[in-house]
Structure formats: C-alpha cells, structure tokens
Amino acid sequence: MRGPAIVLLCLGLTGCGYIGDPQPPALNIPMPVRDLQAEQVGGKIQLRFTIPDLTTEQLPVKDVTVDLRAGETPIAVAARAPGVVEAEAPVAAAWVGQEIAFQVRLQNAKGRYSAPSNQVVRRVVAPVATPAEFGARPVREGMALRWKGTAGSWLVFRDEAQVASVVKPEYLDAAVEVGKSYRYRVQASVKAGTGVAVSEKTAEVAAAYADTFAPAQPAGLNVIASTNANELSWERSTEADLKHYRVFRDGQLLADAVEVPAYTDRTAESGKKYSYAVSAVDTYGNESPKSQPVEITTP
Asked: What are the DSSP calls for 65-82, one per residue?
C-alpha cells in the first residue's frame, strides 16, 4: 500500500500553485521634492516645499527625515510626513551679498536618501526695513494710503490680496465702496540679483470708507426779476453722486429737493429787495457751501 500513497502525494504536490521567485525587500526611497521655493523676507529666508506621498516604488511614504540646506549649512525642519512644509532660516551675516543655493533631500528610516530637489539660488541682501508710519484715510477719490520708506518699490495688500505695486510711498485705492471696511498692509521690495527681497509686511490698518465730502459750491447764480416771479438759474453741478439743490432767500430755506439747476420764486412781492443763494446736496446728505448771493428788487 505504500506505493499508491507515494503516487497520491506526488500528484498532490504537482497540483500546488507556483509561488514564484523571492522578491527583494522594498527600498522605500522617497520621491524627490520638486517644488522647493525660497524668498528673503526681512531678516529671514522663508522656504516652502511638498514632501511627496509616494516612494520611487509607488509605495506610501510613512516617515522621513528632511535634509534642507543653504549651501552646506543645514536648516532644521521638524516635519516627517507627506504634505506642504514651511521652514525659515535667519539671514547669516556671511550670506549678505552672496548667492546662496538652497536644496532639500528626504531620508527614509533606513538612511537612504531621495534624489536632490530642484535647486533654488537667491542673492541675499541686507534685511529690508518694514515701511513706517503707515496709515489710510478716506478722500473724495477713494482710500488714500501713505507710509515712509526708502525701498525701490512697495507692494500694497487689501484684505490680504495684493492690489498694487508702486514706486512712490503712497497709493490711492479707487475701487472702494461707501459703507465698507477694508484691511490694508504694505511691504517694501528691493532688487536682489535676478529676483527680489521683501520686508516684513506692516501691521494691518483697518479703515471704513465713508462719503463725507460735500459737493462743490454752486456757481453762476443768475436771477431775473419780473412782476409775477423771480427766475433763478445756475451752473449744473458735476458730482456723480449729486442728489438735488436747495434754494435760499434772505438766508432762509425757500425750496428743498430742487432737481434741476433752475427755480422760479412765485412768492416774491413787488417792490421788495431779496437776496438769493443755492447749495448742492449729494446722495449721502453732504451739503455744499452756499453760492455767492445775488440781490435783486422785484419790480
């Protein structure tokens, strides 16, 4: 009986699946960083990059050590997992006036390094001073910003979005709306090799835009007297937000909400002397100074 049992055993073995050749263990080398950025802000170099999700064998990255360097000088980075990383290094005195190359590699738990990242070269300059005495105030044309500084240019931010780059320490934000509040900051910028270096941004200045600006004084008032009425006319005001005019006789309000630059005084009495003036009012209730008065005697 031993013979048939051996045959059955052999048949069973030949029916087993083929396991294949042994595979080498995964190296788990991270993919290289490809998006390294470096910018000088004040007295610091700010760096930003992304740790990839996968290794070169398309396996998930679990734990890495970041080797970030400025030339040969290491920059400490605490991050160890995939995702966006932000780091910074103080500007060393020896770097000022020099071109410094920044590069990063990733090291896995077994000490194996990724390929180097893209290299970023920056000419380092003396720290750029933050603009001083920054303020914002409403004017008729918009929000007027002013500050002090000696940089080559300045970047203007409204509600954290850059809205302008200017070469004078002032800016008029004409794209404001009455009744709304805005938050402003300014940042100085200077040339640094083929790039730029910037200052820290100023502290935020919040300002509400309100129209408190009266229309211009009406001009050209003319009065024609007749036995039945006195006819007044004047030059049309040019303000876009003009609402109406007011007519005054002997210093007292005679007519309000006059929509055209003309008015007929039908209450004037014959033989009396009158003094007329007009003012302009805008949609926000701001009233202009009264026009130059015109005196006339009704026939």
From this structure: EEEEEETTEEE-----SS
Residue 137 pairs in a beta bridge with 144
User: How far, in Å, CA of 294 to CA of 297, rounded?
Assistant: 10
Residue that is written with structure tokens 């009455």 in the block: 178
Q: Domain map of the chain by residue range? A: 37-123, 132-208, 222-297
Domain 132-208 identical in fold to domain 222-297: yes
Whether pTM exceeds 0.70: yes
Per-residue pLDDT tens digits for 133-181: 999 999 999 999 999 998 889 999 999 999 999 999 999 999 999 999 9
Token output for 86: 């932000």
What Cα–Cα distance (Å) separates residue 267 from each residue in 203, 221, 249, 255, 293? 61, 19, 11, 11, 18
**Can you say whether residue 180 is alpha, beta or left, with left for phi > 0 and alpha for psi between -120 and 50 degrees?**
beta
Q: Are the C-beta atoms of residues 106 and 51 closer than 8 Å to each other?
A: yes
Residue 12's pLDDT is what?
46
Which residue bears the tokens 């077994």? 110
* 48 pLDDT above the threshold of 80: yes
Distances (CA, A) of 40 to 48, 131, 283: 12, 16, 48
What kind of fold does domain 132-208 have according to CATH? Answer: Immunoglobulin-like (2.60.40)
Q: pLDDT tens for residues 233-249? A: 999 999 999 999 999 99
| Record: fold of 222-297 | Immunoglobulin-like (2.60.40)
Average pLDDT in the chain: 92
Please name the fold of domain 37-123. Answer: Immunoglobulin-like (2.60.40)
Token readout for 294 is: 């015109």
Helix or strand run (H / E) with residue 145: strand 142-148
